[in-house]
Amino acid sequence: MTPFIPLIFLLALGLAVAPSSGDQGAELGGSETLKILGLGESLEQLQDKLKQAVIGQPLSITFAVLSQICSKIVDLGLVRPKTIPDMSRMNFLLRTDECHNVSIPLTEAERLWEAPGFYQDRPTVIFITGWRSTISESNSAPVAKAYNCRNDTNFVLLDAANFIDTLYSWSALNTDAIGEYVAKALLKLNRNYVVENVYVVGHSLGAQIAGSTGRHFRQLSGGATLARVTGLDPANPCFYDGNDLEGVRSGDARFVDIIHSNPGILGTAKVVGDADFFVEGLFAFKSGCEGLNDISCSHNRAVEYFAETVFRTNTNNFLGKRCDRYANLWFRRSCSDTRTVMGYDASASDLGIFYVDANAEEPFGQNANKNSFTSSNSQCGAC
């Protein structure tokens, strides 16, 4: 896990030096800022404190401290994103059945309705990727392939330009504005269609954008609510511990379901949705994720789990056990075998917190039928 320490310091340093780009923070020196926050007398002390936490404590404690620091700084307005989201630079990318990509600016979202390859009689899923992702480098491909295999849904990818491809703290601060712009774009489409047929799915910071989209759509539309928002291991650092960065949560849509795969590290360990599925419970590292990339592998597993369930033959691969108490997620104790479906076919009538078992490799879902299972390597949906 040592190679992951630079990322932690990158995040911490970004939070410490970012005030120089904001008005209020610019009036304060680094030591004054840290004193206000109760974090020590100097940046060096903060870094030493974080280094000690990394070396001497479980990573979950390190990230809990880091998230609290970030939330506190954000609430005080001492950090401002260097790159401010610009709606005119963001696009919807429609993937057609023929695997062509049709780019529609958010500012002209009404063009999506008549775009070649968009079917008005199909539902639409909008997939939003996470931090440091771009159109050419993201984890959207497995999800796009699975939906293409289904051939019954319009698949749209959000191109957020470089607004979540910057320092983490700045990217986190941009999530609310990006979600607002997506909501404004949806308002340009048929209202009834959007409310009944648009489904927003996001991974990591993308999950936070998805939640923001739902909240802003409700506010801007005068109370209309999206049908469903799914958060795939919603980003943990900077969210939920403060007031400014709310994070995806129950109420952002009529049904909000969450798949947790790296709880307490890169993904939140908090129960935030109407249905929260904790794969292998509260253990942060997933089966099959080993070595230097165990953290990022576990964080990305939520996308792989979800993508597996999108294939028609795999919708019931993951079945959850409802837990009455959060602590029971550690070892499945007192969790009822309700066989609650996780993923694509999750039901808005099955609410609560759930423990879900998983395999170390495909099929990840332990309820998969190996005779009918569709692998991510299959030709179905391939371009």
From TrEMBL:
Query: What is its subcellular localisation?
Result: Secreted
Instruction: Give the Gene3D superfamilies listed for this entry.
Output: alpha/beta hydrolase
Q: What is its main location?
A: secreted
GO BP of this protein: lipid catabolic process
Q: Which UniProt keywords apply?
A: Secreted, Signal
**Entry's Pfam families?**
Lipase (PF00151)
Task: Give an example GO cellular component term for this record.
Answer: extracellular space
Stretch forming the signal peptide: 1-22
Cite the Lipase domain residue spans from the record.
88-347
In the UniProt record, does the keyword Secreted occur? Answer: yes
Gene Ontology terms, MF aspect: lipase activity; serine hydrolase activity
* Similarity comment: Belongs to the AB hydrolase superfamily. Lipase family.
Name under which the protein is recorded: Blast:Vitellogenin-1
Species of provenance = Drosophila guanche (Fruit fly)
Q: What is the lineage of its organism?
A: Eukaryota, Metazoa, Ecdysozoa, Arthropoda, Hexapoda
